[in-house]
Amino acid sequence: MTNYAEFHRRSLEDRDAFWAEQAQLVDWKTQPKQICDYSNPPFAKWFAGGFTNLCHNAVDRHLKDRPDQAALIFVSTETNQEKVYSFHELHAEVQRMAAVLKELGVQKGDRVLIYMPMIAEAAFAMLACARIGAIHSVVFGGFASGSLASRIEDASPKVIISADAGSRGGKAVAYKPLLDEAIRLSSHKPDSVLLVDRGLVAMNLLAGRDHLWAPLRQKNLNTVVPCEWLEATHPSYTLYTSGTTGKPKGVQRDTGGYAVALAASLKHIFCGNAGETYFATSDIGWVVGHSYIIYGPLIAGMATIMYEGLPIRPDGGIWWSLVEKYKVTVMFSAPTAIRVLKKQDPALLKKYDLSSLRALFLAGEPLDQPTAQWISAGLGRPIVDNYWQTETGWPILAICKGVDDAPTKFGSPGKAVYGYNVKLLDENTGEELKGANQKGVVAIEGPLPPGCLQTVWGDDTRFVSTYWTTIPGRMVYSTFDWGIRDEDGYYFILGRTDDVINVAGHRLGTLEIEESISGHPNIAEVAVVGVADQLKGQVAMAFAVVKDTSLVTDDASRLKLEAEVMKLVDGDLGAVARPARVRFVTVLPKTRSGKLLRRAIQAVCENRDPGDLTTMEDPAALQQIKDLITT
Ligand code: PRX
Predict the structure, then answer these.
(1) How far, in Å, CA of 335 to CA of 601, rounded?
(2) How far, in Å, CA of 243 to CA of 391, rounded?
């Protein structure tokens, strides 16, 4: 075991040599000319002059040594399908999809939006884009027309790939009508829509625009589409995430840096080896799905499980049965899913042979101690909390098991991962807090390591102004999370500094939800806050001022309006963003300058002291909320 402190130090102080070594974990058509070009901070160009391809590294390069090994294991407990694709078969399917995209006019640099359930074709679509140098933008299938429309608008895709429906709890959820509505709402119109017909719901096809996948695939069964060699800095994808303003940001990722970062993370953090099986229980609509369902495991030559379904259907043992069946060695999930499983029969954890499993990685939200202890005792395997963001694409904080034998500490995702120069900054002065046990904003000194966002899609200015600040002579990236570092270098994450909330591991902007609710004709004003929840970590709570109070005179009318508001959010953003409750007040707590006091509302909802309220305009506003939640 290397000395981790030295490994981390070298990654920063001897940066180029360190990453030049990691770069050898992937195949290059042309070796990079420069490891890190940071001549224009905060824009970092990793592996400039190098040419490679993500699909080549994830698929083609394994054809020599492991053509018949499982690559993609698709399991749906929704439609009772299970299909294993070898690397050879995956290669064929990806080429078919790539051929169809080319036929539809997609060229290098064009955007392709993917709005799909967790089916194998979604993986083919992502890899096919990477193969031909198209930039994919996967939109989570749980998002509704409004969210989808704003992403179509921003990404301006030439083609959209979708399906007739997803399925949840055995019920089909039609996608096509939502997509049609989103295209109608967007001023950008795609040339073509490619649709996978799963036979779940009937679809109306628009002649000239909509195409079915099956016949086009059939036509291209044997079409050969070589990988396009791309500059390391060529964008591979955009993935939209919520931030401080209502409009979601398109996190833009490169090609070469991402390939290297993922390959290195599989080795040093996840300790996954070629020939083994990786199981990430996320969705391709999120960053974990991009990095650790699709690209990371495949680049490492591992089989990856793509699971469509609930963790408790047919029963709470389904995931463990897959671990046994496919001899999963590395598993990745979110604390919220473990909290769901914790409510199931504990015997289900003992029913299956889990001896293949080396570790369970958990990320996306704080890991509470009871959940960590329950799963750790149940599995008898190390639980590795790790902290990162859509923006970074791979862990910022973790215990890098491959190079560090340090113990984990409950409540801490671990230490700064190699490549990340993590700092804590004073909230007011922006100065670095060097001592132990001080609370500050978690920040990363530039350059960000390979694999992190290059910029915000189409908006370099927003990238710089949103994330970066200058501390004397250096630029630092803000994570928008509070943190503390102890004397051993372990960090503890204490929640967001902005208006982002985390519901069941899903990152949502309260402002987006507020915008949607404000669209209701009888809502004058609304504040949405995240409130602690035992199961989901946080839930959204809305407090709204109605325009015509004669419409909310009794419980029945209040419930009716609440249901209408929830329906509106469902239709706009999707059920993931639906507030747990919408309560009605006559005035919202604000500062004298008119700023909503969301933090005070949140504190009251969580039964905490709301702190200094001297700047509050009307103290009765907060009292109304107090009265509401205690009744
Ligand atoms: O607030 C932090 C929280 O989730 C945010 C990032 O969410 P997202 O972009 O969806 O990326 C998730 C990638 C796993 C962070 O800013 N977060 C993530 N991991 C942890 C966490 N909070 C506490 N502990 C974690 N391990």
Answers:
(1) 26
(2) 11
Nearest to 125 by CA among 134, 281, 299: 134
Measure the CA–CA gap between 17 and 371, rounded to whole angstroms. 40
Ligand 1 centre to CA of 79 (Å) is 31
Residue 246, pLDDT score: 61
Provide the β-strand partners of residue 383: 360
Nearest residue by C-alpha to atom 10 in ligand 1: 507
User: Has residue 206 got a pLDDT over 70?
Assistant: yes
Contacts 24+ apart (CB under 8 A), 64-68: 65/274, 65/301, 66/274, 66/275, 66/301
Kindly tell me if the per-residue pLDDT of 1 is higher than 70: no
- Residue 145's nearest CA partner among 169, 117, 115, 172 is 115
**pLDDT at res. 245:** 64
3-state helix/strand/coil string of 6-66: HHHHHHHHCHHHHHHHHHHHCCCCECCCEEEEEEECCEEEEEECCEECHHHHHCHHHCCCC
pLDDT above 80: residue 323 = yes
Instruction: Calculate mean pLDDT across residues 280-292.
Output: 97
pLDDT in tens, 133-173: 999 999 999 999 999 999 999 999 999 999 999 999 999 99
Residues 397/425, Cβ–Cβ less than 8 Å:
no
Kind of pairing, strands 397-398 and 383-385?
A: unpaired
Tokens 């359930």 belong to which residue? 117
Report whether 74 contacts 93 (CB < 8 A): no
Ligand 1: distance of its center to the CA of 499 in Å?
Answer: 14
Question: Using 50, 70 and 90 to split pLDDT, how confident is the model at 345?
Answer: confident
DSSP H or E segment with residue 565: helix 555-572
The rounded Å distance from CA 366 to ligand 1 centre is 8
Peptide bond into 42 cis (omega under 30): yes
3-state secondary structure 455-474: EECCCHHHHHHHHEEEECCE
Read off the pLDDT of each residue in 547-559 and give the average, rounded to a whole number: 92
User: Which residues sit with their C-beta closer than 6 Å to ligand 1?
Assistant: 241, 287-288, 363-366, 385-390, 413, 479, 481, 493, 496, 502, 507
Instruction: Determine the Cα–Cα distance for residues 291 and 261; give it in Å rounded to an integer.
Output: 10
Encoding tokens for residue 215? 């016949």
Is the distance from CB of 137 to CB of 181 less than 8 angstroms?
Answer: no
Of 155, 174, 157, whose CA–CA distance to 166 is shortest? Answer: 174
Host H or E run for residue 217: helix 213-219
Q: With a cut of 60, say whether residue 560 has pLDDT above it.
A: yes
For the record, the structure tokens of 21 come out as 């070594």
End-to-end CA distance of the chain: give it in Å, rounded: 58
Quote the ligand 1 centre to 518 CA distance (angstroms).
28
Mean pLDDT along residues 570-597: 92
Please check the confidence at residue 396 and state whether its pLDDT lies above 60. Answer: yes
pLDDT of residue 181 exceeding 80:
yes
What length is written for the chain?
A: 631
Supply the mean pLDDT for the chain: 95
Q: Do 151 and 136 contact (CB within 8 A), yes or no?
A: no
Q: Average pLDDT in the 288-292 region?
A: 98
Q: How far apart are CA 9 and CA 28, in angstroms?
A: 27
Average pLDDT score over residue span 119-127: 98
Find residue 507's DSSP bridge partners: 502
Q: Which residue has the higher pLDDT, 290 or 599?
A: 290
